[in-house]
Amino acid sequence: MPVQVLIPTPLQPFTANEAVVELNAVDVNQLIQALDERFPGLKARLCDDSGKLRRFLNIYVNSEDIRFLDNQATPLKEGDEVSIIPAVAGG
Amino acid sequence: MTVTLTQPRQSSEATFTGLRCRECGHPYEATAQHVCSEVCFGPLEVVYDMERIKARVSRAAIEAGPLSIWRYRDFLPIDSDPIDVGTGLTPLLRANHLARRLGLNHLYIKNDGVNMPTLSFKDRVVSVALTRARELGFTTVSCASTGNLANSTAAIAAHAGLRCCVFIPADLEAGKVLGTLIYHPTLMAVEGNYDQVNRLCCEVANSHGWGFVNINLRPYYSEGSKTLAFEVAEQLGWRLPDHVVAPLASGSLYTKICKGFREFVAAGLVEHKPVRFSGAQAEGCSPIAQAFAAGRDFIAPVKPDTIAKSIAIGNPADGPYALDVARQSGGSITAVSDAEIVSAIKLLAETEGIFTETAGGTTIAVLKKLAESGKIHPDETTVAYITGNGLKTAEAVKDVIGAPFEIDARLDSFNQAWAKASGQTMAGMALAA
Known about the structure:
Mean pLDDT of chain B: 93
Structural class of chain B: alpha/beta
Strand content of chain A: 25-35%
Strand order of the largest sheet of chain B: 4-5-13-10-11-12
Largest interface: A-B, 29 and 50 residues
Strand order of the largest sheet of chain A: 2-1-5-3-4
Order of helices and strands of chain A: EEHHEEE
Distance between the termini of chain A: 37 Å
Oligomer: heterodimer
Radius of gyration of chain B: 22 Å
Low-confidence stretches of chain B: none
Strand content of chain B: 5-15%
Mean pLDDT of chain A: 88
Radius of gyration of chain A: 12 Å
Number of strands of chain B: 13
Low-confidence stretches of chain A: none
Largest sheet of chain A: 5 strands, mixed
Number of helices of chain B: 15
Shape of chain B: globular
Shape of chain A: globular
Number of strands of chain A: 5
């Protein structure tokens, strides 16, 4: 199922400067795997050694933080938009 | 798109040498970037040459410096003439009436509700961020804001002649919208909460080549909060307080106050002593307080629902560091209800003549809770940080402050009303007694 992934600036060196990437995946875990297959080394940037997303990284599916959904098991369907966003300061 | 701007070449006058990842220590150049892109996505922070700072600063030199945050410029990450709009050196008020009410003996209020130019502590961080933005060659600056940051960015950008586009959640208080529009930036009111606004801004920052004060300029921006620590130390007569109470939104201000005290100690300007850090959140948006109470070292984000909109950040970037500061210092992070926040705004106004916004109400409500539960010792020198002005959030209190007596321009009309007013006061006093 093709979904769109928005790649943040700091990760674009890995994606040949592409800001939007289209991939097939049924959930977020599989999406990370698919990203790594297309752009080797990317998973190690997104996840720690145990495969868990790094704590200063947020992933959104259609504007919803995956921690409000099913975390890395959050299902994806055709046409979903996934954003990868590093944490930022407030106020 | 990666934007290439002026190469950072710090002059021999600069005291900062670059950036570094706060998580893994990986070094970066002092450009507009905020994320450890080469290793772990941790936040970047400014690296200073502390020996150089130490050789340069003294109490006398600081006291003879500008009457603004720029008297501490050796501790700030800039390398040119700063944008000085008189930001900082706000009053540190000895709060005897409030202290008595709370059973404390040495209470001070640091009142950034009268900071310049836009009446919140954000003027500190924005003065630093926009000075650095100019050095890095940006001509358009931007931010995602819960209100105060929008006011400040728009005002200081106007003064500095920078183009400005700011983003806010669409449901902000009228005073905060007006207080941004008056400076004539482009203002985007986004349907969604702050965390959604921030997410959008990250995407805009990726594609437009603007200087976002809280995104790609964040390492410089956040350093401005240290001046809240420097001023308190200087205003207390070059010593540190025992206990600090401050509001928590992203957690940046709270952790930077701690960093500011440490740097003053490292530079030999004040004696080391332990300072306890207590943080304040609103129950309707208390992800850091919840993590503190549960003994967790990670933050589970929440969806904000509170009148304290200026601190309604459900996904606080510096939350893990704020937890460290609270735990290591023997402090705490506490949440209070919206009703307690409103009562505390009134309490501070009635006892000390300071009208603060909801974030300040949150801080005072937590101060009260800690004092009443014995978590602040009466003899501790305690400083509560008031970070914004009440006139910006009039909605929060307008229904609970009573109304004027409407009278005719005749003495008997006045006398009648006065008798009624005196009766109310007497009744109030009897109730309080």
